[in-house]
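Subject: for your reference before the review

Hello V.,

The reviewers asked for a structural picture of the protein, and I figured it would be easier to keep everything in one thread rather than splitting it across files. Below is the amino acid sequence we used in the manuscript, unchanged from the supplementary table.
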Amino acid sequence: MKIRNTVLSMLLLSLATLNAPALAAGTDVNITQSLAAVEVMHQGKKVRIERVQDTENMLDPDFSLTSRPCPPFCIQPMTLGPGVETIGELEMLDYLKKSGKDASILVIDSRDGDWPQRSGVIPGSVQLPWQELHPAHNELDKIADILIFRFGAARQGGLWNFENAKTLVLYCNGPWCGQSPTNIKQLMAMGYPAHKLKWYRGGVQDWKMLGLTTVTPK
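And here is what came back from the structure prediction:
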């Protein structure tokens, strides 16, 4: 009986090993169990997104504060509007990989001021401060130019046609940041299709909390 149980245990262990995901090679701190890094295009150059390999690495002081004045730094909801998808880091990585090959996807850093310089930007994203899409801070003609020339929307008479508009993936500083949510709500008010708007709620705070790569903008 003891021999039979031993053989059975060895068989179960072998099956578990066969079914286990393969570990990514060459790093100690992987993105997932089978993914060590992702290469994306950023300003015409390849950038490798990976996690910091130093297991003693700490979060930047800028993102270690737990309490900021609200308003304006209020906790954002999980869903901004019907049809707008809230995504996490792995989905963001998928969009970043696609955006380098697919012109119909644009990843946008909505932050203003010196935040991008201080904390870096997510590789593969473009900078578009939130004020540039807000009619209280920018001229309507300039906002229209962004919608047409950067987002691929079209004007038909006095109406907008978003049939060929890009899928926009927006982020800012994190769950307490209202910059990208403001842009998404403004775009929806203009008629931008909700299914073409994606929101990375965790933003740079969660990105850096997980030790993922950022780059300093030029």
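For the response letter, the relevant points are probably these. The chain has one domain: 37-209. Confidence is low (pLDDT under 50) at residues 2-21.

Happy to draft the paragraph if you're swamped.

O.
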